Amino acid sequence: MPFYEFNHHIPLTISQKDELAAAITTIHSTHFSTPKLFVNVAFHDVSQTSTYIAGKRRTANHLSAHVRNGPSRGRKDWAYLVSEVQAAWDKIVGPGLPKVRRGDPEVDTSLRSIVLLGDMIYMTELGFEVPPAGGDVQWLQENWGEFNRRAEAGDEDFKGMVEEVKERKLMVTDGMTAQQKLEEALGWGDSA
Predict the structure, then answer these.
(1) Which stretches of the chain drop beneath a pLDDT of 70?
(2) Distance between CA 146 and CA 47 in Å, rounded?
(3) Which residues belong to any copy of the Tautomerase cis-CaaD-like domain (predicted)?
(4) Domains and CATH numbers, the chain
């Protein structure tokens, strides 16, 4: 559902990409009841691309994400998400302006910007119409039979998603929202 795109001018190892993708997937899916199967992350090496900041040729690392925005997701939700993504980048790649990397003091490893674009007005993924923000639980319930059918037919992606939904108890059965269940599991908020 969300689509995160890194444009990086510094070389990132396969391990760093794997760790960043896993971190973003976990951050997004646990903060918003999105199954991990539907969190997309891409990396684009822009080291050979001409980029300009303030009209001057510069290099920088950026992250943009197309996300579902709506009344169920407020500014605090997005601020939390951005701070967690920034912390993941700093842990995996490294903070600093500039950070010395392999003896080159000119290489800046910082993540200059994180831009969230709440512009997803309609989308399908894996053949399913994606629900509006906040509609994940109902969407899971409506499509549960087909998700299980695909899992039982041997689709590894759907097997993993069905297991995740069950483990995380993403479908409301006791009157609690997915966010309330997360808060309860973490010992936070009114649900704890």
Answers:
(1) 96-106, 172-192
(2) 43
(3) 1-96
(4) 3-131 (3.30.429.10), 135-192 (no CATH)
